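RETRY 2/3 - previous attempt timed out on the joint model. Re-submitting the same 587-residue input unchanged.
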Amino acid sequence: MSTATLDRPRASTSSVHVEPVTQRRVLNSEWIKMRSLRSTGLTLLAAVVAMIAIGWIVGWATNAHWATQRPDEIASFNPISNSLNGYHLAQLAVGVLGVLLVSGEYATGMIRATFQSVPTRLPVLWAKAALYAGVTFVLMLVASFAAFLGGQQFLGTHGTSLSASGAVQDIFGVTGYLTLIGIFAVALGFIIRSTAGGIATLFGLLLVLPGIGLVLPTSWQANTLPYLPSNAGASMFSPQTAVGSLSAGAGLVVLVTWVVAALAGAAVLVKRRDA
Amino acid sequence: MIEARNLTKKYGDKTAVNDLSFTAQPGIITGFLGPNGAGKSTTMRMILGLDAPTSGSVTVGGKPYAEHAKPLQVVGALLEARAVHTSRSAYNHLLALAATHGIARGRVDDVIEMVGLQDVARKRAGGFSLGMGQRLGIASALLADPETLILDEPVNGLDPEGIRWVRDLLKGLAAEGHTIFVSSHLMSEMALTADHVIVVGRGRLMADMPMSELIAQASSNVVVVRSPQATALAKALAGKDVTVTSTEQNTLEINGLTAAQIGDRALELNISLHELSSKQASLEEAFMEMTRDEVEFHASTPDDDHTLRSAA
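RETRY 2/3 succeeded.
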């Protein structure tokens, strides 16, 4: 092409002001997208409600049935993790929404409009992951505090307070776990692209693999089970009793490794695949 | 300005686009014509960097699409398949796209008004009719007032008024110096819109010429003659550059002579004529002829020409 053509002044002096695409603008765009789908609010609400309601109900039930508990149950009783039990359900809501934020775009064809406006593509992946992490972290932190504080009230005399050793650490631990699962789900969404496949894969990794692992020979279990995302993540906030369990710090490192690997895989595929 | 060089796309062992080279110039409407499955949409996706070519390259404004800092200002596109989240409103859809390029809200309102979607802009795009969906797609394409517009079957699902609106819009933009690249499988639509036409069949380039030239080429006349002495007449008319075919008894189709020449010759030989008529090939027929062997999904009805023509 001749430079004459390249330098040709734009045919119509456009009155539309257009800026270059930047990561910040893509974040802004993704924020508009996330806010403008009703499923986002509903699913996040479900996660918050699950976290709080289960914490309170479990606290109340434990207190009400304290007299009928077995001695070993009382011995291993931990008031902090008792109130944070809602994470089992909350992680499903957080995971489903993370997958859906991406797979919804592939299912509807929106991804083509997205990649037309951001043809370098990767800023979309980073923006979705970062935004979702931010939203999940804030909401789950609030929900975890509420679950803990209310849960301790319901536990009555068996409850403890925020000043108890490990309380704040576990609240941040469970929040961090849910946030990392959220990012992991977004990455899975980009890798799998279909809603059903993405959610099935996520649930398989979080819920099914730990169960299958228990069938393995005991000698293998210690080398595998603690490193699964759910078990590694749980080490971050609840005392692990199984053989070879990781410390909170090691659990965090293992889960972050899973998330980074998923993001890296997503980045490679997003760049390489046809949209 | 779009420049494709030896563009090829293979899916497994199936070649969707085969060594396609063409240029779409600014200031005119370039029609991209071909039967369904000819590789039009794949070519358009490759222009936009959505699909990566197996080999070859394509640039817009001198660079691959993805290398532009403000891609939406370079190309606005309406692709055939919908590219809208069904649960989001048209307004928020456009707002999200605008945000990537720092385009103001006012422009979003402007394009919504331009395509006539004011009344439904706040409703879920999933509830839109085909025509409303096309209008929303055109609104997204116009958002950044791009130099080049790529439209895949833009009049699909539009009512006659909508079709005229798109045609006038494209002509206006071309007159302002924009590059317009618009696909269709309907020759009749292209004949009314395009200045230049690129015809593809099974991913290969079949023709690349000004519309006027294609029309002239299509108008090669065939004269139909019915005569009781058809065989004698055929013998007398035979010559260089003249082809005579007999379609049924006593009927000839003659290519290379005008009706007047044939009539005069018959008079000289004292052959009586029962019919003498010029048959002008329609553009649609020229297109069908050109792509006959390249149609991917052939309906095997004996009269399928006819069916397609009336559908047009």
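Confidence is low (pLDDT under 50) at residues 301-312 of chain B. Closing ticket.
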